[in-house]
Amino acid sequence: MPSVLIVDDLLSIHEMLEAVIQPTGFSTAFATDGEKALVRYKEEKFDLVLADIDMKPMDGITLLKHLKEYDPAAVIVIMTAYASTESAIQALKFGAFDYLQKPFRVNELIATLKRGIEFKQFQTERAVAGLAPGAASNDIAKRIIGRSPAVQKLIQRVQKLTEVRTPVLLQGENGSGKTAVAEVLHAALGTAEAQMVRIDCALSSEPSLRDGLLGQGGAGGAWVEQAKGGTLFLQHIQCLPLPVQEELVSVLRNTAHGFRLVCTTTEDLEALVDEGKFNDELFYRVASLPVVLPPLRSRPEDIPLLVKHYAAQSTNPHFDAKLVEFTEDAMATLQAYHWPGNLTELFQVVTKIVSTAEARVVTSEQLPLRLREVKNWPSLAEYLAGQEKQYVDQVLHACQGDKAAAAKVLGVDPARLG
């Protein structure tokens, strides 16, 4: 029987909640303030905590912070008066599962508790699946390459995130490795059947986003259904149209227990919230566990390891690509370059050089001219524009020049293709 710890300083609320919750299959326990609730949770480890936001001496937000610090997998639902809705949304920032506005309906309360319990079960499925404790660590070491302090900090952060299934927001420049981290988090789910449904919000049209994400009546569309038991991966979430953002909040309230949500962004979402360009509640639902990926230019000491790693993934008709060596001068040039395309650009440079090299030793003269002369360094905008054009050209080629078909693949208006 799922256990719920009810935290409220009014005994009448305890009696009312006990009367409506227990008959639906939950066991209940009570605490009259945050401090007592924290002590009791540590002693008994409840499945869910239902806490009022307005209590003394420890309010619901402070209790929430302490509970999540003690147990990152704790599932907490905050109760708030209608006038305190903004504070309740802020609670999502600190990891609340959801919030309820007083006065709430009994069916709304029970539905929220059931979703919370389902999410709790989803959190613990990794252990039930029998995933080896070192499996996630091994996968992280294979996917996140580097020994710099910034990368070691990132690895530690990702390792902790493999142990919970709360939504994660990956922040960083294009090419900085966000997809690799998302794949590590997905692999940590430990079930071969689980799907990772990838949606690039920058390339998807609003109609396709509505159909795939929202569906009918806030139940979620086909993409949400496919992601159940696995991962819903929303890339460039800052590109979601505002109306879709607002409706996605309802979908997440109804379905977030069924999948791991991982989002990426290249922008400061909190600044976009302040500017009215991003929905505040959606932000707090997706950004409770932010991860910032460092740009490659901030960790040049990792470049030799990355070059060796990428070279080993290449093929050369003359010799084993793993035997390729870069001279000290060539490596120094690679480390001095500012890498606007980050890991993606480095991978492209290394694999092209290694696959076409006629000798095992690569000198600085064999590196692209833009790497060797500062005056030729492209800006990030110039690099990304080139990458986008290259991708569009590839899609057009695959569609045999049919712009209407290419536009459908890209999820854009055909007029954008000229």
Structure characterization notes:
There is one protein chain. With 418 residues, the protein is α/β, with parallel strands linked by helices. The chain has 4 domains: 3-128, 3-Layer(aba) Sandwich (Rossmann fold); 135-292, P-loop containing nucleotide triphosphate hydrolases (Rossmann fold); 296-376, Helicase, Ruva Protein, domain 3 (Orthogonal Bundle), CATH 1.10.8; 380-417, no CATH class. The protein is 49% helix and 13% strand. The chain has helices at residues 11-21, 34-44, 60-70, 85-93, 106-128, 135-143, 149-161, 178-187, 206-214, 222-227, 242-255, 269-274, 280-286, 303-312, 328-336, 342-356, 369-372, 380-398, 403-410; strands at 3-7, 27-31, 48-52, 76-81, 98-102, 168-171, 196-200, 231-235, 260-265, 290-292, 325-326, 361-362. The longest helix has 23 residues, at 106-128.
